[in-house]
Amino acid sequence: MTAFPRPERFSEAEWAARVKLAACYRIFAHLGWAELIYNHISLRVPGPDPHFLINPFGLHYTEVTASNLVKVDIDGHIVGHSDWPINPAGFTFHGAIHATLPDAHCVMHVHTTPTMAVCCLQDGLSFTNFYAAQLYGQVAYHDFEGITVHLEEGARILASSQGKPVLLLRNHGPVVIGPTLAQAFNRMWLVQRACEVQMASQPMGALQPISEAALQACVRDSLNFNPNFGAGEDSFAAMQRLIDRIDPGYRA
Questions:
Q1: N or C: which terminus of the chain has fewer CB atoms within 10 Å of its end residue's CB?
Q2: GO cellular component annotations, sorted alphabetically (predicted)?
Q3: Residues 162-191: b if buried by 16+ CB within 10 A, e if exposed
Q4: Is-contact 98 50, C-beta < 8 A?
Q5: Could you read off the pLDDT tens digit of each residue along the chain, which spans 252 residues?
């Protein structure tokens, strides 16, 4: 693999976070989860300052690299130099979540067709498939208010989340929160797959219910978050290796 040295202006911890987040943007693009130049994954920078990394506004996810990620403070003000701005909608609710929830180190938002379709359903996510079952009791909803560019909506979005790691913005799309990037990614994977299966099965007839006991067992036994299986780190690392084989340039 081509070596991409760490620029001196970044600490080792920040550079590691930048590389991992840039990889995540490339993973999203590979999976078809990108949305032109829109949507966001934000990640807290390790260290004492409440600083966060987010994608440069104007770049496709396949153009995001470790060095061009933008560092912002809790209010969305750019910290240091950046050749690119950020999308104000990107930090409206991300900032509110990061500022309020101590374990919200990573926040993800997508507009994939299956997840948006489920967000447009009156009953929302149906806990009737293998993937949805692992999210039982972890999903909240927020009513649609329009494009999320108004700061005051951030507090309302946070209130709607009720501390749950998955928030479905009605008529809009999902927001996933995680204490690590890998855990947030694995939650988003579950949301995406649950919605794909629901949209495939729902038109075919009545959905087969899952018992409460089985749903609780699925949450308890989910390998995605089991420390014995890397708590999501192993599966994320596998996807990062895939991206390294395709285009390691995200490491620049």
A1: N
A2: cytoskeleton
A3: eeebbbbbbebbbbbbbbbbbbbbbbbbbb
A4: yes
A5: 668 999 999 999 999 999 999 999 999 999 999 999 999 999 999 999 999 999 999 999 999 999 999 999 988 899 999 999 999 766 767 788 888 888 899 999 999 999 999 999 999 999 999 999 999 999 999 999 888 766 677 778 878 888 899 999 999 999 999 999 999 999 999 999 999 999 999 999 999 999 999 999 999 999 778 777 778 999 999 999 999 999 999 999
Residues 6+ apart with CB under 8 A from 178: 104, 105, 106, 107, 108, 165, 184, 185, 186, 187, 232
Nearest to 176 by CA among 147, 139, 151: 139
User: What b/e readout covers 82-121, taking b as 16+ CB neighbours within 10 angstroms?
Assistant: eeeebbebbbbbbbbbbbebeebbbbbbbbbebbbebbeb
Amino acid at 9: R
- Could you tell me the CA-to-CA distances from 209 to 86, 166, 203 in Å, in that order? 43, 21, 15
Query: Hey, how many other C-beta atoms are within 10 angstroms of the C-beta on 131?
Result: 21
